[in-house]
């Protein structure tokens, strides 16, 4: 049984879509997008790029639909883009709220 | 029929379009399908990065995000190259995306800042 299990594992390792190929690592590295958004959970809003965050939210929203329209469907890719759209959207909202508070501070400043 | 299909049927039913436009509207990867907009979204990342290169100061560069963009662009460019059939447009789009990420990282490195 152990040799059969290790056979399955090593068959996968050496397969044409296994971890020795780009077919494996290219989709895996897509997961670094939501991981980066988690890493930047408390990033200073002044240093968040509004344009880049908007584009990343749109990118992930479109690819959520793409993951379900390709054949075969890729639920893992769908989940990844769902997380990414949510987390990058959170950074975008942080930036927009900071800009709004900056604007309010300027307007509330008493004029001499 | 879903709303997109209804819109596609409505647009294709107009008589003023030339035939090649109607064929494009009805294509498997035409403008009424998601397959048309996904490469555009990838290009959008490159455009946003180019805008940030030109307009934004170096201290706003996010090195983690740019590393992910560079690595993802490189790996996807290679993946699209080895796919059958070879996807030249996606190779190009991903290469440009990776290049913008590398340029941003280079700018950050040159300025000597870490975050």
UniProtKB/TrEMBL annotation, chain A:
InterPro entries to which the protein is assigned, alphabetical: MPC
Any matching Pfam family: MPC
The organism's place on the tree of life at top rank: Eukaryota
Membrane-related topology note: Multi-pass membrane protein
Protein's GO biological process: pyruvate import into mitochondria
Compartments where located: Mitochondrion inner membrane
KW Transmembrane helix (keyword) present: yes
UniProt key word Coiled coil: no
GO CC terms, sorted: mitochondrial inner membrane
Keywords of the record: Membrane, Mitochondrion, Mitochondrion inner membrane, Transmembrane, Transmembrane helix, Transport
Family: Belongs to the mitochondrial pyruvate carrier (MPC) (TC 2.A.105) family.
Protein task: Mediates the uptake of pyruvate into mitochondria.
Name of the molecule in the record: Mitochondrial pyruvate carrier
Species of origin: Paramecium primaurelia
Biological classification of the source: Eukaryota, Sar, Alveolata, Ciliophora, Intramacronucleata
TrEMBL record, chain B:
GO-annotated cellular components: mitochondrial inner membrane
Topological relation to the membrane, as annotated: Multi-pass membrane protein
Keyword hit for Phosphoprotein: no
Keywords: Membrane, Mitochondrion, Mitochondrion inner membrane, Transmembrane, Transmembrane helix, Transport
GO biological process: pyruvate import into mitochondria
Keyword Thylakoid: no
Subcellular location(s) per record: Mitochondrion inner membrane
Entry superkingdom: Eukaryota
Pfam families in the cross-refs: MPC
InterPro entries with a match to the protein in the record: MPC
Function: Mediates the uptake of pyruvate into mitochondria.
Family, per entry: Belongs to the mitochondrial pyruvate carrier (MPC) (TC 2.A.105) family.
The protein, known as: Mitochondrial pyruvate carrier
Species annotation: Paramecium primaurelia
């Amino acid at each position: 049984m152990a040799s059969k299990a290790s056979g399955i594992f090593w068959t996968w390792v050496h397969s044409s879509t296994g971890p020795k190929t780009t077919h494996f690592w290219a989709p895996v590295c897509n997961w670094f997008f939501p991981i980066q958004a988690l890493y930047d959970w408390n990033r200073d809003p002044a240093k968040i790029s509004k344009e880049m965050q908007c584009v990343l939210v749109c990118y992930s929203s479109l690819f959520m639909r793409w993951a379900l329209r390709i054949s075969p469907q890729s639920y893992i890719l769908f989940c990844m883009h769902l997380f990414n759209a949510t987390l990058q959207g959170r950074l975008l909202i942080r930036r927009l709220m900071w800009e709004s508070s900056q604007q309010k501070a300027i307007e509330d400043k008493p004029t001499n | 029929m879903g709303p997109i299909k209804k819109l596609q049927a409505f647009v294709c039913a107009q008589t003023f379009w030339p035939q090649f436009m109607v064929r494009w509207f009805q294509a498997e990867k035409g403008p009424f399908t998601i397959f048309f907009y996904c490469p555009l979204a990838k290009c959008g990342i490159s455009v946003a990065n180019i805008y940030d290169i030109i307009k934004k100061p170096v201290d706003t560069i996010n090195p983690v995000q740019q590393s992910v963009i560079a690595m993802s662009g490189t790996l996807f460019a290679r993946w699209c190259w080895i796919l059958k059939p070879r996807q030249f447009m996606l190779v190009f789009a991903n290469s440009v995306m990776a290049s913008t990420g590398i340029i941003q990282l280079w700018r950050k490195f040159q300025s000597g800042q870490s975050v």
